[in-house]
Amino acid sequence: MPRLIRAYVRWVDAINYRLGRIVMYGIFVMVGILMWSSISKTFFLPSLWTLEMAQFAMVAYYILGGPYSIQMGSNVRMDLFYHNWSDRKKAQFDAATVVVLAFYLGVLLYGAVDSFAYSLGHFRGTPFAFLWELITTFFTAGPTAAGELLGYLERSPTAWRPILWPIKMIMTLGILLMLLQALSEFFKDIARIRGQEI
After folding, report:
1. H or E stretch including 37?
2. Residue 27 has what pLDDT?
3. Tripartite ATP-independent periplasmic transporters DctQ component domain: which residues (predicted)?
4. Which of 134, 153, 156, 180 has the fewest CB neighbours in a 10 Å radius?
5. Share of the chain above pLDDT 70, in %
C-alpha cells in the first residue's frame, strides 16, 4: 500500500482509538445524571435538565464511540456464514459492505452539517459555505465578527430549553470520524485482499 494510505490509516486509527478510550467513561456521566434524576425526584423538586442531559450524554457516548467500535470490530454482524469464510473472502465482503456504509455515512454527514448550520441560525443557502465562512471569520476577524454571522440559535422545545448546537456539533464530528474510520477499514480490507498488512 502507498505510504500516504498507510499514514492515513495510522492517523485515523490513532485518533479514534484514543477518543474511544476516553468516551467509554461517558457511561459514568450518564449513570451520575440518572442517579441525580432519581434522587431529586424522590427527595427534592425534580430537576428539569436531567432527562434531556442524559439523552445528550447518550448521543455523545454512542456517536463518538462508533468509530472505536468499527475499529475494534465490535459492531453487530450477522454471522450466519461469515465465520466459515476464508480471510480473503471476509476481506472482500467487508470491503463491499464498507462502500455501502461510506455512502450511508456520507448522506448522514450532509444531514448533520445541515442540521448543525440550522441550529446556528442558518436557514438559507448551502450549510457548508456558511460553516466555512463562520470558521474563517472566527480565525481571521475574531469571535465577535463570527458571532455576527449567527442567527437565532435553535433551542429544544422542552421546559429546560437548552441550545442545541453543541450536541449537533458532536453528532457532526462523530459521523465524520465514523466516515474516516470506514475508509480506513476499507484500505485495510484492500490490503488483506492483496495479502498485505497495514
Report:
1. helix 26-43
2. 92
3. 30-126
4. 153
5. 100
Please check whether residue 120 is in contact with residue 165, taking contact to mean a CB–CB distance below 8 angstroms.
yes
DSSP 48: S
DSSP state of 159: S
Residue type (1 letter), 99? V
Q: Do residues 137 and 146 touch, judged by C-beta distance below 8 A?
A: yes
**Contacts of 196 by beta carbon, 8 Å cutoff, 6+ apart:** 1
pLDDT in tens, 42-90: 888 888 888 899 999 999 999 999 999 999 988 777 778 878 888 889 8
- Other C-beta atoms lying within 10 Å of the C-beta of residue 165: 20
Q: What domain range is 136 assigned to?
A: 3-193
Measured CA to CA, the distance from residue 54 to residue 47 in angstroms comes to: 12
Q: Averaged over 129-144, what is the pLDDT?
A: 91
Q: What is the dihedral of CA 158, 163, 167, 168, to 10 degrees?
A: 100
The answer as to whether 29 is a domain residue is yes
Residue 150: pLDDT over 90: no
The predicted pLDDT at position 183 comes to 96
Residue 198 lies in a domain: no
- Give the Cα separation of 25 and 28 in Å (integer): 6
Domain assignment present for 126: yes
Work out how many domains the chain is built from and give that number.
1
